[in-house]
Design a protein that fits this description.
Helix content of chain A: 55-70%
CATH topology of one domain in chain A: Arc Repressor Mutant, subunit A
CATH class of one domain in chain A: Mainly Alpha
Number of strands of chain A: 5
Oligomer: homodimer
Number of helices of chain A: 6
CATH superfamily of one domain in chain A: Winged helix-like DNA-binding domain superfamily/Winged helix DNA-binding domain
Shape of chain A: elongated
Chain lengths: ~120, ~120
DNA sequence: ATATCATATGAACAATCATTCATATAAAGA
DNA sequence: TCTTTATATGAATGATTGTTCATATGATAT
């Protein structure tokens, strides 16, 4: 007999559901992963990441590259930095941004592969 | 001499900017990639993907698993399907959902790795 | 045929988000 | 010290999005 849970939904594979529920990553980890991917999910940030894949750049470079104003770029860089995807260092009046680790390029390449099919 | 482009931004590495601009993926590809990652960027969809990583399931199963109503799950499954991340087949009154290819699990694993550090 | 069940879909609403504008900070030069 | 330059940041706004509710579709069973 099929199980009817919340709001009358009918689960056909209750067994599997219980097993999955027991083995899946914590709610917190799942949220963090979604947060991470959300950061990749914007064209502006994707362009920034792609650029930094090639070379360290400062804010003005990126603004020129993206044809966007400095403020917009700066805001997005903050998002990227909060997600630990980029790091920054100050050199005089300029601030240089670079990718913070190797995961970034792996994830980006994976996305590119999926898209190019 | 530093270059001052749109809106007075100052580019320090004009050389690099030009090179990156010449070599980077098309605007369209960059948009598609962002769109792809956007789909991963939601906890509900991440949970669905993680579940389907383990086994094929139908809508009611997922609703039970996520403690969400059928409609919400169905809407998100549509998003996943439009992004070609899942496929579906009908068996009687039920519709079974499964991951559509291997990229998905690779991308998800990559995200998990990044988060678990 | 009709009732029921599983799923899909459209409209509405609240919440989130990217960009802009204006302004703040922090370094360098005069 | 005062100005200029590079970047950051807060508030406002328009656009996008996830969920809910109500309803539609499509299949089975009586």
């Amino acid at each position: 007999m099929k199980e009817h849970g919340i709001e009358g939904v009918c689960s056909v594979h209750e067994e599997a559901v219980r097993r999955i529920l027991a083995n899946r990553p914590s709610e917190e980890h799942l949220f963090e992963m979604a947060e991470l991917f959300k950061v990749f999910g914007d064209p502006t940030r994707m362009k920034i990441l792609y650029a930094l894949l090639e070379s360290e750049l400062c804010v003005g470079d990126l603004a020129l590259l993206l044809s966007m104003n400095q403020s917009a770029v700066s805001h997005q860089l903050k998002v990227l930095k909060d997600a630990s995807l980029v790091r920054s260092r100050r050199v005089g009046k300029n601030i240089y941004y670079a990718l913070s680790d190797g995961h970034v390029s792996t994830i980006v390449s994976m996305g590119m592969e999926h898209v190019c099919e």
